[in-house]
C-alpha cells in the first residue's frame, strides 16, 4: 500500500506541531517543508521528532551542494529523510547517501526543475537513494496548463520507487495510487482544509 506523506508548508513550529497532532493518525511520513525549515531552522526537526518519535520525519532541505554536510545536519537534528536536488551533481547525492548509511537514515531525490524526471530517477536510484520525488513545485503548479497527470504518467513508467508531489488531492488520489507510486505527498490538500484530520483520513483510506 502506498504511504501518505503530509507536506507541512506552514511557517512556525507551533503551527506545524498543531497540524501534525491532528493528522498523525492518518499519515506515515511528516514532511517539514523547505519554507518551514528556513523559517524555524533545525530546531523544528528536533521538535517534530520528539513529538512524534514513531513517525518518519522528512526534512525537505532541497540541498544543492555539500550533500554530506547538510545530510549530517538533518540526521543529527532527528530527520529520517533528507531531500537532495536531482538537478545537482551525483557527487552531492552520493555524499548525502554516505551520511545516510552512517546514521541509518535515507536520502530522497527531489526532481523539481529536472527536464527528464524518469531518466534522472533511474540514474539516482543507482546511487543508493531510497526513492525519488516526481515533483512539480508550488510555482510550477501555478503555471497555466499544469496538470498532475504528467507526474502520474511518469510514475507509471519509472520502474523505480517514486513519490508524487504537486497537487495531490482527493480528486486524483485514486490515479496516484494506480500509478504504482510508493508515496503520495499531500500539502495544501491537507493543511489548507478546514478539517485537516478528515482530509488526511480520506486520502489515507483512498490509498488502502
Ligand atoms: O515541496 C513542496 C514545495 O516545494 C514547497 O515546499 C510542497 O510541499 C509539495 O509541492 C507538496 O505540496 P502540495 O503541492 O501543496 O501538495
Structure overview:
The structure is a single chain. Helices cover 47% and strands 20% of the residues. It is α/β, with parallel strands linked by helices. It has a single domain, classed as Alpha-Beta Barrel (TIM Barrel). Strands 1-2-3-4-5-6-7-8 form an eight-stranded parallel beta barrel, surrounded by eight helices. Helix 4 packs parallel to helix 5. The N and C termini lie close together (6 Å). The mean pLDDT is 98. It catalyses: D-ribulose 5-phosphate + formaldehyde = D-arabino-hex-3-ulose 6-phosphate. Pathway: One-carbon metabolism; formaldehyde assimilation via RuMP pathway; D-fructose 6-phosphate from D-ribulose 5-phosphate and formaldehyde: step 1/2.
Q: What is the level 1 CATH name?
A: Alpha Beta
Distance between the termini: 6 Å
Strand content: 15-25%
Helix-strand makeup class:
alpha/beta
- Low-pLDDT stretches are none
CATH architecture: Alpha-Beta Barrel
**Helix content range of the residues, please?**
40-55%
* Total beta-strand segments: 8
Average of per-residue pLDDT values: 98
Radius of gyration: 16 Å
Morphology: globular
Largest sheet: 8 strands, parallel, barrel
Q: Count of DSSP helices?
A: 11
Topology (elements, then pairings):
Layout: E1 3-8, H1 13-23, E2 29-32, H2 34-40, H3 43-51, E3 56-63, H4 67-77, E4 81-85, H5 90-103, E5 106-110, H6 117-125, E6 131-135, H7 138-142, H8 149-158, E7 162-165, H9 173-178, E8 183-186, H10 188-191, H11 196-207
Helix pairs in contact: 1-3, 4-5, 6-8
The ligand O=C([C@H](O)CO)[C@H](O)[C@H](O)COP(=O)(O)O binds next to helix 2, helix 7, strand 8 and helix 10.
Amino acid at each position: 500500500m502506498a504511504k501518505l506523506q503530509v507536506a507541512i508548508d506552514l511557517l512556525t513550529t507551533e503551527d506545524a506541531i498543531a497540524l501534525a497532532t491532528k493528522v498523525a493518525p492518518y499519515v506515515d511520513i511528516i514532511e517539514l517543508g523547505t519554507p518551514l525549515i528556513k523559517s524555524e531552522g533545525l530546531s523544528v526537526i528536533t521538535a517534530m521528532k520528539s513529538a512524534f518519535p514513531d513517525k518518519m520525519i522528512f526534512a525537505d532541505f532541497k540541498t544543492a551542494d555539500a550533500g554530506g554536510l547538510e545530510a549530517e545536519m538533518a540526521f543529527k537534528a532527528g530527520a529520517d529523510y533528507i531531500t537532495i536536488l536531482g538537478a545537482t551533481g551525483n557527487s552531492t547525492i552520493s555524499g548525502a547517501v554516505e551520511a545516510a548509511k552512517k546514521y541509518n537514515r535515507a536520502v530522497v531525490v527531489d526532481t523539481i526543475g529536472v527536464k527528464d524526471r524518469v531518466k534522472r530517477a533511474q540514474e539516482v536510484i543507482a546511487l543508493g537513494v531510497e526513492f525519488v520525488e516526481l515533483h512539480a513545485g508550488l510555482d510550477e503548479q501555478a503555471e497555466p496548463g499544469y496538470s498532475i497527470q504528467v507526474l502520474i504518467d511518469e510514475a507509471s513508467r519509472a520502474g523505480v520507487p517514486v513519490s508524487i508531489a504537486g497537487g495531490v488531492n482527493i480528486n486524483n488520489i485514486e490515479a496516484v495510487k494506480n500509478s504504482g507510486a510508493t508515496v503520495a505527498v499531500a500539502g495544501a490538500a491537507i493543511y489548507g482544509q478546514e478539517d485537516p484530520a478528515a482530509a488526511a483520513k480520506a486520502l489515507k483510506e483512498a490509498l488502502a
